[in-house]
Amino acid sequence: MPKYLHCLPASAALLLMTSLHSAVAATMYGTVTAGLSYVDHIGAKNGSVVRASNSEWGTSLIGIQMAEALTSDVQLLIRLESGFNTATGTVGSDGMLFSRYSTLGVESKTWGRLEAGRSMAYSNDVWYIDPMGLNWSGSATLTKGHSWNAWSHTVGYRSPQSGGMAIGLQSSVGGRACRSTAAALSFQRGGLDVRAIYDETRDSQGQLSELFDASREWIVGARYDQSANSWFVAYNIVRAPDASASGDTSMRHVWAGVNHKIGSRDLLRLGIYGARSNVTDSRALLVSGGWEHTFAPALTLWGTAAVVRNNREAAFPVAAYWQDLPAPGATQHTVNGGLIYTF
């Protein structure tokens, strides 16, 4: 058994004692996602796989939030959150118990929120302008999840909303190597939500040397809610100026889509995503559709079907399983579905 798992009972007891014997307001929350998925045309052998899916529609996670008032306007915030794999029962990643959040911060209704620790990158705000809601066949698929990472050693600031505008600034402060930075700007008025997002992650030498793992990106997009429909459009560019001359140094990525509500319990999703790199001229078109049915406020059934068409130079996957890459030029399909329970 991994060493950190032995700490779980003690951690749980400590948190329980904290909630019972202090003025701190503690809230436990979580999401449990489980289902099945199918992916075809994998690799040169054109294989396929059926697997127990995990976090394909919504991340399986468990967390605790604690808040304590310091003044009438300022409160202390603590957030501890970890993703887990419902298919295997494993918690966290790379030996981290709190793989998504382990932050301590202060928040003011007047001045905003300042926090430090391990945190999801502020570039995850792309969720608001992605018609597929950042699922595994959505806006992060063709960019290898560039915008949905979690970072260590971060300091972040979120402003309060003023006139519909709000900003977020975040940076990891662990040194020059693997340095990460993000900024998010939003404007909301009526049914309109406009977002501008920047993020970058550097390699161990402080370089932007690989298009998906050590690069910078800009995203500009909008969502407009109108009656039963929500419309989405976005433009994304990824750049790695320090990459080798023979490799891609930039990629343009665009998408559009719509969500349609049917009554109070059903939601249909459609997203179309296109990507094209500069040097190898790798091109892909991803079309993804989804359906959600709400049985109860906490229980949702989901289903997704998607297809990606690659040109002869490209090998983009249909889902964010980048270990299931197709052969160059292949068309790949996926179908998945399951249940999401939130508490």
From TrEMBL:
GO biological process: monoatomic ion transport
GO cellular component, one term: pore complex
Residues of the signal peptide: 1-25
UniProt topology in membrane: Multi-pass membrane protein
Keyword DNA-binding part of the UniProt annotation: no
Source organism, top-level taxon: Bacteria
Coiled-coil residues: none
Domain Porin: 10-311
Pfam families the UniProt entry points to: Porin_4
Keywords: Cell outer membrane, Ion transport, Membrane, Porin, Signal, Transmembrane, Transmembrane beta strand, Transport
InterPro entries registered for this protein in UniProt: Gram-neg_bact_OMP, Gram_neg_porin_domain, Porin_dom_sf
A GO molecular-function annotation: porin activity
Subcellular location: Cell outer membrane
Main location: membrane
Self-association state and partner proteins as the record states: Homotrimer.
This protein's name: Porin
Lineage of source species: Bacteria, Pseudomonadati, Pseudomonadota, Betaproteobacteria, Burkholderiales
